[in-house]
Amino acid sequence: MEAVKKMFKNNIRQYAMIIALVLIMAFFQVATGGILLVPMNVTNLILQNGYVFILAIGMTLAILTGGNIDLSVGSLCALIGAVSGTLIITMKMNVGLAILIALLLSAIIGIWQGFWIAYIRIPAFIVTLAGMLLFRGLTITMLKGLTLAPFPESFQNISSGFVLDIFGGFGTNLNFTAILTGIIISILYVVLQLKKRAKQQKNDFPLSPLPLFITQIVGIVAVINLFFFWLAAYKGIPIALIFIGVLILVYSIFTTNTVSGRYLYAMGGNEKAAKLSGINTNKVLFFAYVNMAVLSAVAGMMFASRINSASPQAGLNFELDAIAACFIGGASAYGGVGTVMGAIIGALVMGVLNNGMSILGVGSDMQMSIKGIVLLAAVAFDVISKNKSKS
């Protein structure tokens, strides 16, 4: 029992947000009469918040460097959407080539902002605030205040396409490709967890109690298979979910299992100490903002694909959604603390709140107020718990 308490205390942010997400989902499931977790709504929940998941991943890396944020991501999403719309709809360019050009443009923008932030050391807040205004102005100029539509089907499939069922459903309405995918992911998860525990045991690291370890594995495997069953009961696996899943996997491995990823945590924990230990903190900060710009382009194209248009009003408040997701998911306002999965959990909390309140007919003004309270509570929890650990 003491080991369980210690484990919970050491991972209090992560567990608290998971518990909060479960409670919020349970509340809205009851309040909406079971509509929240209807398979179609579960799929829509993922697709509607796809851009938040992607932006939250990039924002996590920026926040890790010392509590830095990027205010320009929403405007950059709109600009990339406008560029994509101009190239694909107006100029009839090949979709693949247009996407490549958009990504290259976003990388150049990231280099521009990263230079001022990392090497000139202008505060990130100021540089990205300037970027927010600049990119929004360029978007309106490029689109002349009008909306470009529609995109070709190949571009729309980024957010509205689904993976075909190679099994044909076996005469049922279920997508067996989705079910099999859930089973495969579950097996991989169990194998990785067993390997991780064996490695910890070999190196004499403290282990969680075996009953708790088994309970955790069973619980997560159940959630994975339930999630993919929901997908199977609607249309299967959305193509957008594959993009998001790959990004989550790649960035989770990068931040936890690579030297470069650990540099982000070291810089956020104590930049002076990181410098003295030989870390090029300028390069770390520069990378975080170039990466943020490229992920903003991915999110911008996904959003443009979903609404099937390039709009001068796209991307409004996207930066706030991403920042809120990171802090709700356990990232520290001071930097050095936070995970990619935590940010995804935070984005899910925001998404479930939005979706649940919309189903209940709660007005947009009240929705904003509630989300503001949730964000403040999450950051207050972070600050209070950090102060208690110091004392």
From TrEMBL:
Name by which UniProt lists this protein:
Xylose transport system permease protein XylH
Q: Name one GO cellular component term.
A: plasma membrane
Among its keywords, does the record have Glycoprotein? Answer: no
Q: Where are the transmembrane segments?
A: 15-39, 45-64, 71-89, 95-117, 124-146, 166-192, 212-233, 239-264, 284-304
Please indicate if the UniProt record lists Signal as a keyword. Answer: no
Its subcellular locations are: Cell membrane
The task this protein performs is described as: Part of the binding-protein-dependent transport system for D-xylose. Probably responsible for the translocation of the substrate across the membrane.
Citing just one GO molecular function, the answer is: transmembrane transporter activity
Q: Which UniProt keywords apply?
A: Cell inner membrane, Cell membrane, Membrane, Sugar transport, Transmembrane, Transmembrane helix, Transport
Q: Which Pfam families match?
A: BPD_transp_2
The source's superkingdom equals Bacteria
Q: How does the protein's chain sit in the membrane according to the entry?
A: Multi-pass membrane protein
Name the source organism: Clostridium magnum DSM 2767
